[in-house]
């Protein structure tokens, strides 16, 4: 019996020692996490481009949900870890200060005794502040990691679903492939409908309702969180079961989460995520984009055609029109081509023939007008010199055009029902 008590005492002592020294690991992990998380914004920017380029526009909504959750989750994580790092550094300073000056001193104060006494009445004790900051740091750290686990799982599952969807869409009926998405959406809606009344105070003692809520939580969350179900629910349960005792801490975490959402939203606004919900077919032809001109374009990925400048002082215009990967896949339907060929596996003569067929298709599906007049053009396939995107290039003679303002219109046919139209103004000046 005495040996068991001694063993338990040693385990408790080891755990307490680990708790006291955990700040070192927290500080190191926070520093690494801040660097990695801020870099993650670049990864989501890349994911936005990949979705726009590769996904069929009918699947843009799924990609939109993934990247929006990504920006907001990374924003919350970055905000939490930055605040945690600052608070933990402040806590270290307080602990060090407390080791030198254990308490306030009235006798040795540089201020008057009257002022010092009055000020000490409103200031918290140093050990109490140290304990509160330590609690807040630990809560932020655990909350941040639970959010990280949820988002990583969600991103992996959603991305895997999109890959499988696109691999099977030509083999399996469309509605069958959408069944998993409908099931997850239904589980989420059912969860909201059950959890709201179950968590109302007046329903806490209703056994049947609480049992249904438990069954849903056990089954539904397994599907939503996968293998991380128990880890995530453990953290949520710790927060939920201690909410009344530590309301201020939980509220602070909520405030920090809202600040992180704002931070992520600002960063999201700097990306091209909007095209996943608006769609390229809704391009505003009354607005001039910087990406229309090579001299003002700063984008890493072109979503619009591009000419060399808004001021044309030469004898011609060079026009580059980007071709998305999903457009290439759909050309077999648009131009009645037999299939989407694997060019590398074809002999040289067949490869050139197939490429010419696709080039002829691009020629048919792109109409160029200047001042409402159709301009005969001849396209050449090329990669953009800056973004390295695949596209087509054509050159137009402007020697016979009058100086002044002109309007270039590019019309791209994606299908029988979808067309993209861009209007690019340019100004011709006299050449010496």
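Sequence proposed for the structure above (432 residues):
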């Amino acid at each position: 019996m005495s040996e068991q008590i001694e063993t338990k005492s040693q385990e408790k002592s080891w755990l307490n020692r680990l708790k006291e020294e955990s700040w070192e690991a927290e500080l190191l992990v926070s520093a690494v996490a801040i660097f990695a998380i801020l870099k993650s914004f670049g990864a989501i920017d890349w994911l936005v481009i990949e979705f726009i380029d590769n996904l069929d526009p009918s699947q843009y909504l799924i990609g939109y949900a993934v990247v929006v959750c990504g920006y907001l989750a990374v924003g919350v994580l970055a905000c939490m870890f930055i605040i945690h790092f600052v608070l933990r550094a402040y806590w270290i300073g307080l602990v060090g200060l407390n080791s030198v000056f254990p308490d306030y001193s009235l006798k040795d104060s540089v201020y008057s005794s009257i002022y010092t006494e009055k000020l000490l009445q409103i200031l918290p004790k140093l050990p109490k502040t140290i304990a509160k900051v330590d609690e807040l740091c630990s809560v932020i750290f655990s909350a941040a990691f639970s959010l990280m686990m949820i988002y990583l799982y969600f991103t992996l599952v959603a991305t895997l679903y999109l890959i499988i969807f696109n691999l099977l869409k030509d083999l399996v009926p469309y509605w069958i492939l959408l069944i998993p998405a409908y099931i997850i959406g239904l589980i989420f809606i059912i969860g909201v409908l059950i959890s709201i009344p179950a968590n109302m105070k007046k329903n806490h003692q209703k056994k049947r309702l609480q049992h249904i809520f438990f069954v849903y939580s056990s089954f539904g969350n397994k599907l939503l969180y996968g293998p991380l179900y128990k880890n995530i629910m453990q953290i949520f349960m710790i927060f939920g079961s201690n909410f009344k005792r530590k309301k201020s801490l939980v509220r602070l975490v909520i405030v920090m989460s809202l600040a992180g959402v704002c931070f992520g939203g600002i960063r999201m606004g700097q990306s091209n995520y909007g095209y996943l919900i608006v769609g390229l077919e809704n391009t505003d032809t009354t607005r001039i984009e910087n990406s229309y001109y090579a001299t003002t374009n700063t984008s890493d990925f072109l979503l619009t055609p591009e000419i060399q400048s808004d001021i044309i002082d030469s004898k011609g215009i060079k026009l580059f029109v980007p071709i998305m990967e999903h457009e290439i896949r759909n050309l077999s339907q648009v131009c009645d081509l037999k299939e989407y060929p694997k060019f590398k596996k074809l002999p040289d003569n067949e490869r050139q023939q197939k490429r010419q067929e696709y080039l002829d298709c691009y020629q048919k599906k792109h109409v160029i007008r200047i001042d409402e007049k159709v301009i005969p053009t001849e396209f050449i396939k090329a990669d953009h010199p800056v973004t390295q995107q695949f596209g087509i290039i054509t050159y137009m003679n402007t020697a016979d055009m009058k100086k002044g303002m002109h309007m270039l219109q590019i019309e791209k046919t994606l299908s029988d029902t979808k067309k993209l139209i861009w209007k690019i103004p340019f100004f011709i000046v006299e050449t010496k």
